[in-house]
Every structure is written in C-alpha cells, then in structure tokens.
Amino acid sequence: MFKPTRSLNARLRLTTKQVGGGYYKGNRTGNVGYFGRKKGTYFIDWRKVRTYVVPEGLDTFKLTPFVTKRMEPTRTHYTQTIMIGDREVEVPRGMNGKDYLDDWYANNELESDEMERIRREEVSGQEDTAMSDGQHAEQTTSEQKTNPGTHMDNS
C-alpha cells in the first residue's frame, strides 16, 4: 500500500527476506581462513582462530562442571485435586499467578503490610464516599416525602 521514497530506500538496510539465498550475515565474527585454489580446500589461518587462556592451577582445581544422571526429579509443591471416577486424586501442577503472589507476600512482609494498609485506606475512603452519597440520597427522599411539591417532575 505505502512504500518508502526512493531516497529513503537507498538508506534502508536490506534484510534476509528481501534478498535471495546469497545474503547470509552469520554471527559477524569474520573468517578464520581462506579457500585454496583447488576445489573444496580451505586453509585455517591459526592467527585468526580465537584461543582462550587457561587460568593457572586449573588442573588442581577440585570443582568440576558435573551433573549427575542418578538424581530423582524434584517434586513440585503445587498440586491440584481432580476426580477420577468416584475418587479424588492429587496430581502435580505448575505454579500460577496466585502461588507467586502468595510467595511474594510471605517473603516481603514489610512491603506487603504497607500495601495492605494502603488498600484498607482506599476501601475505607470509598465506603465514606458511598455513605455520604447514601446519606444525601436519604435526605433528598425524606425532603420529597415532607414536601411533595418540591421534587422535579419530567412530565
């Protein structure tokens, strides 16, 4: 429908979807060698290969990046009760938003107490305004009962 102008198009970069299969960005690390004259030969330039310096004393270091395969899966704390036939069965379930909020309230006592105090103030403020609105409504109805000619009639 709308296309960029010719001058803007000259400044926009090409994307992989605008060009055929010859546009490959890779991870932009550059090449580590060069192609030889014969077909299918590639020579690695070892000056361009990234090497990592091993820290001193690594051969005597005791900790290793080892993960055992004999560990039992960790049980979840969250379960739900479902009915299978005529009996109830507890099955594991994932953590949901309510579980997260309960955990947050348990671990952040000061912040959650402050939020609860603010919430109570808001509720009491809303009740006060609702009560004043209700009192105003009661006053107008009592005035209408005592002075029936004072209310407005839309007919």
Automatic annotation (TrEMBL):
GO BP annotation list: translation
Keywords: Mitochondrion, Ribonucleoprotein, Ribosomal protein, Transit peptide
Main location: mitochondrion
Ribosomal protein found in the keyword field: yes
GO annotation, cellular component aspect: mitochondrial large ribosomal subunit
A GO molecular-function annotation: structural constituent of ribosome
Residue ranges of the region described as Disordered: 111-155
Positions with biased composition (Polar residues): 137-155
Subcellular localization, as worded in the UniProt entry: Mitochondrion
InterPro entries associated with the record: Ribosomal_mL41
rRNA-binding found in the keyword field: no
Family to which the UniProt record says this protein belongs: Belongs to the mitochondrion-specific ribosomal protein mL41 family.
Name the UniProt record assigns to this protein: 50S ribosomal protein YmL27
